[in-house]
Amino acid sequence: MTLLASGRFRWLSHDWTVADAVGFAGLCDDLLAACEPSATLLRLQLAGIVPLTDRVAMLARIEDHLAHRLRHLDVRDANVVAKPTEWDLARKTAAARRPAALPPRKAASRSPTASSTSKHKWKATAAKAWPNTPPSPASRRKPKPCAFSADLGLAAIRRTGVE
For the segment 53-93, what is each residue's pLDDT rounded down to a tens digit? Predict the structure, then answer.
């Protein structure tokens, strides 16, 4: 008697209780070693209390690793509770205090018209502050016609108008 596979895909359903990202990674590795990922359809139900950084790492592993290897993945992670650590709380508190210390940004300063307007205002202010300052040589410089050169080719001839 020979055992034949009757279907193309393997349907799996797992309920995992997780405590950290390392344990979750071990469960994922065991699952992938025990099945053929390209022919596996998985419904994964997660539960547990994990640190906030571990929850982020677990979700990143699901999205970046499992979802691309398995044929189909249905994850139900509503029962995974993220418990912030002292480090997470300190980082969040520092981030909450930071905007109050910085001056507010103006939304108009990001638009191209606002930046060109501020350039014109700066030029006008500079002209009032230094009225006798001549314009820079770069602004007075004009391209001079040049004769034919092997390096420039036809572009130089067309620019000078010489044929």
Answer: 899 999 999 999 999 999 999 999 999 998 888 887 777 77
Residue 39 lies in a domain: yes
Within a domain: residue 48? yes
Question: What single-letter amino acid sits at 63?
Answer: E
Phi, psi (rounded to 5 degrees) for 20: -160, 175
Each residue's pLDDT tens digit, 33-57: 999 998 999 999 999 999 988 999 9
Please tell me the distance from the alpha carbon of residue 61 to that of residue 15, in angstroms, as a whole number.
17
- Residue 84 DSSP SS3: coil
Cα–chain-centroid distance for residue 29? 27
Q: What is the pLDDT of residue 130?
A: 62
**What pLDDT was estimated at residue 88?**
75
Q: Length of the chain in residues, anyone? A: 163
Q: From start to end of the chain, where are the E strands? A: 10-17, 40-51, 72-83
**109 within some domain:** no
Answer yes or no: is 14 within a domain: yes
**Segments forming the whole domain that contains residue 68:** 10-85
